[in-house]
Every structure is written in structure tokens, then in C-alpha cells.
Amino acid sequence: MAIQIKNLEQLKSMRKAGLVVAHTLNLIRDSVEIGMTTVDLDLLAVRSLEKYNAKSSFKGYHGFPSVICASVNDEVVHGIPNKRVIQDGDLLSIDFGAIVEGWHGDAAISIGIGNVDPADQKLMDVCEESMWQGIAAGKNGGKLTDISQAVESYINSQGKYGILREYGGHGIGSEMHQEPHILNFGKGGNGPDLIPGMALAIEPMITRGTEKTKVLSDDWTVVSQDHSRGAHFEHTYAIAPDGKPFVLTAIDGGKAELSRLGVEISELI
Ligand code: MG
Fold it and tell me: How far, in Å, is the centroid of ligand 1 from the Cα of 98?
């Protein structure tokens, strides 16, 4: 299937969805406490969707039962919210998607709870920064795997981490998951041209140990095979009609982080 190219009006609808995602993830980050369950966090997100009159991208997606993915410690992605009580020192990854006017936004954050192991903090910091490096590299006129190379080379420059092989980023628009699939590793200069109107979700998933994963018997939760802890960050960004990027799921459009990396964001969206 061809890559969906969005016009400015469609990107503005995606921005509305992206802001719902940004505000909801901020709400979860500000609200999460030791003793809560991941179902409690899912309920916060349900209420947030109602408040903004938005729909969930996740609930019902191939039968997924919840509006967030909540993955704790050695669970890296796709965890189903449950009655597990959040403990001091846990590493929690929350993935969330929203639909406004038929258009999707998708983002994820990892959060350290209470007294965080410095090695877990570094894992999260490396994962988040690799996402920004990937977005900064995904420029108009470049090639898709420029993103992959930027993500991987940043992670590898920071230490020994497992970069998940079977999961990656994706195109996004009138469906949550669209072409192209975006690997978090590989050599740059390959794949489709990056052009205005593309919207891409960039989402590195890394562990402190192996890149190898398995899916639990709930058919969703992805854990590292060596039970090392994982982190996951994601943003949806677009290349605007002026050729400049705009991060649809960041409150400031990615201005602070991308300007630090020498990239100017679009002011059209
Ligand atoms: Mg995604």
C-alpha cells in the first residue's frame, strides 16, 4: 500500500488528536503513584478521552481491551492494564493513541516510579533521546532509513542495549498503523523518500539486556527473554507542506528538543 500523504487541513486534525495524546500522557505522568494499579491509569485515560470528545486508537484494535498499553519492568510494550500494584522502583511504559475527526495520534512515555535505579534512568534517557535523534534525522528530502540509522547509532553510542527487532515505528494517519514500517536499526539512505505530508510515529524500544522478546499467554504483552527491563518512547511527527517537521504529539510541536538538535519546526500546523 502507498504511503498516505496528508494535506495541511488533515495534519491540523492530526494535531488535535496529538494534543489529546500529549495532555493524557502528561496527566498519567503527573498522577501515577506507588499503590495504584495500571487499570487505574487506564481509567484516567478513558476519562481524558471523554473530556476531549476523542476516541481510543487502541481499544478494540485486533481485540485489544484497553485504551492504554501499560508495560511494567521486563514488559517492554503492549502490556494490558491489570490489577498489578505499582511498586517503588518500577519502570512503567505507557503507550496511548487517540482519534479526532477520524485522524490518529500515537505516543508513548516511560516513567520511573519513586526510587529509580540509575541504570533504569539511563535506559529511559537513552531511549527518549534516540527518538529525538530519529525525528531530527527524518528530514524532508531524506530517506526513511536515515531515521533507523540515527536511532540505532545514538543508542549504541551510549552503551550496550538490546534494540527490539520485531517491533518498530510506522506511518500514521486515518489508521493508527500504516505504511511504512520504520526499523529502529539499519543503515541510512534506503527506503522511500521523506516528503511533505508524511506522518510517522517514531518509537524506539530498548532493554538493558537482550533484544530477544517473547509474547505472554495473554497474546499481547511483550517481555524481554532475559527479563531485563525495557523502555519505550514514541512521538508522532509530520513533515509539513513547507518541508519542516512538526511533532504532533508534543505540546510545543517539538520546538525545544529539535532546536537543540539544530532543526527548525514548521509554523504551519
Ligand atoms: Mg505506535
Answer: 11
Residue 1 has pLDDT above 90, yes or no: no
pLDDT bin (cut points 50, 70, 90) of residue 262 is very high
At a CB cut-off of 8 Å and minimum separation 6, what does 22 contact? Answer: 105, 107, 249, 250, 251
CA 233–ligand 1 middle distance (angstroms): 9
241 CA distance to ligand 1 middle (Å): 23
Query: Ligand 1: distance of its center to the CA of 170 in Å?
Result: 7
CA distance 179 to 87: 38
Q: What's the gap in Å between 188 CA and the centre of ligand 1?
A: 21
Q: How far is the CA of 234 from the centre of ligand 1 (A)?
A: 7
All domains of the chain in start order, with CATH: 8-260 (3.90.230.10)
**How far does residue 31's CA lie from ligand 1's centre (Å)?**
23
Residues 143-192: tens digit of each pLDDT: 999 999 999 999 999 999 999 999 999 999 999 999 999 999 999 999 99
Would the CA dihedral through 4, 46, 23, 170 be positive or negative? negative
Q: Is the pTM of this model over 0.90?
A: yes
**What is the Cα–Cα distance from 49 to 152, expressed in whole angstroms?**
34
CA distances from 265 to 110, 163, 244, 261 (A): 24, 28, 6, 11
Between the CA of 34 and the centroid of ligand 1 the distance, in Å, is 27
Q: What is the mean pLDDT of the chain?
A: 98
CA–centroid distance, residue 106 to ligand 1 (Å): 5
